[in-house]
Amino acid sequence: MKSWLSRYVEAQHRALDSIPLEAVERAIATVRKAWEEDRQIFAIGNGGNAANAAHFATDLGKGSSDALGKRFRVMTLADNVAWLTAIGNDYSFDDVFLRPLQNYARPGDVLIASSVSGNSPNLVRAMEWARDNDLRTIAFVGEKRGGVAALAEQPIVVADAHYGRVEDVQMTLFHMICYAFMEKTEEPA
Fold first, then answer.
1. Which residues of 160-169 are buried (b: 16+ CB within 10 A; e: fewer)?
2. Tens digit of pLDDT for each residue in 123-145?
3. How many Å apart are CA 156 and CA 178, to the nearest integer?
């Protein structure tokens, strides 16, 4: 067991070391611009990435907003079970993020999608719609990249395919964005 644990930790370090810091810096600048322009920020993902999106919306909406005094307009589209199941039942699970975006999103808003494979049809459809409707798009993906990364203006690739490791690093990316504001790494313009 100890040998397996050591290998797991070593692999996690490699995944963390693969974070492209310049890309994260661009993502932070995109989120900052959305905050300055009072734009909406949407976070989406499935499974563990849905949980990460909710955690991000909480940290940015509460912690980062509290630190800056001006509120971030941020929400995850994965938390409304009634709406998700109505869309999935009446239309298609592939539309569960697309349809709420059609209700809420406006040009200039930001969509952040996180996925290990990058090929979830519901994320791809949301990213296509976001691209076609002038939203800024960021994708956190694993090394397979997939359609989500291909559609994103700003793909951030974690060099691993292990679901647990990639999701852990993606949560680190979300925390990096939030703590850039909480720790006031750069004063707003």
1. bebeebbbbb
2. 999 999 999 999 999 999 999 99
3. 16
Radius of gyration of the chain (CA): 16
Element (H, E) at 82: helix 81-90
Task: Name the one residue in this structure whose structure tokens are 């960021």.
Answer: 138
**Distance from C-alpha of 60 to C-alpha of 54, rounded to nearest angstrom:** 10
CB 160 within 8 A of CB 166: yes
Q: Which residue has the tokens 């979830």?
A: 120
Q: What's the full length of the chain, in residues?
A: 189
Whether the model clears a pTM of 0.90, i.e. scores above it, the answer is yes
Closest CA to 172 of 61, 17, 31: 17
For 181, residues 6+ apart whose C-beta sits below 8 A from its C-beta are 31, 32, 35, 60, 64, 67, 68, 72
